[in-house]
Amino acid sequence: QVQLVESGGGLVQPGGSLRLSCAASGSIFRINAAAWYRQAPGKQRELVAAITRGGSTNYADSVKGRFTISRDNAKNTVYLQMSSLKPEDTAVYYCNAEIYSGGVYSPHWGQGTQVTVSS
Fold first, then answer.
1. Is the pLDDT reported for residue 97 higher than 90?
2. What is the largest CA-CA distance in the chain?
3. Which of 1, 54, 99, 106 supports an S-S bond with 26, CB 3.0-4.6 Å?
4. 82-96: b or e for each residue (b if 16 or more CB lie within 10 Å)?
5. What distance in Å separates the CA atoms of residue 80 and residue 11, rounded to the nearest whole number?
6. CB neighbour burial string for 99-111, b if at least 16 within 10 angstroms, e if fewer
7. 3-class DSSP state for residue 5?
8. Looking at residue 29, what is its pLDDT?
C-alpha cells in the first residue's frame, strides 16, 4: 500500500533549475533515510543525494554545491532542488525511502521522473 511518487521532472536548458518532489502515501509509520538516485542511458544507477530523518545530508561530488535535498516529515515528502543544471545531469531520477510500515521497514522506490538538460 505504501507508494512513492516523483514529480517535477522535465526539459530544462543548461544553467536552469528544477525542483523534484517525492511524496509518500499509504500506511506509513515513519520515513527514515531517504535519497535520490539517477540513471543515465548506458550507465549504472548512482546515488545523487541522501538525507537522514534528522536532516543530515550528503551528496555525490558531481552535484555538490548545485543540488539540495530536503524533507518535510509532516508531509511525508522529500525534495531535490537542482540548479545550474548541466547536460550530464540528464537522467531518470528515482526517489528511495526507508519506510516503516506494517511493523517492518523496507526500501521503497518511486517510478522515476525524467530530467533532460538540453538547449
1. yes
2. 48
3. 1
4. beebeeebbbbbbbb
5. 16
6. bebeeeeeebebe
7. strand
8. 75
What is the Cα–Cα distance from 20 to 42, expressed in whole angstroms? 23
Report the pLDDT averaged over residues 13-20. Answer: 98
Closest CA to 38 of 80, 98, 101, 99: 80
**Separation CA 94–CA 110 (nearest Å):** 6
pLDDT (0 to 100) of residue 100 = 87
pLDDT digits (tens, 9 = 90+) for 22-78: 999 988 778 899 999 999 999 999 999 999 988 999 999 999 999 999 999 889 999
User: Measured in whole angstroms, how far is the alpha carbon of residue 92 from the centre of its chain?
Assistant: 10
Q: Which amino acid is at 57?
A: T
SS (H, E, C) 51-107: ECCCCCEEECCCCCCCEEEEEEHHHCEEEEEECCCCHHHCEEEEEEEEEEECCEEEE
Which amino acid appears at position 83 of this protein?
A: S
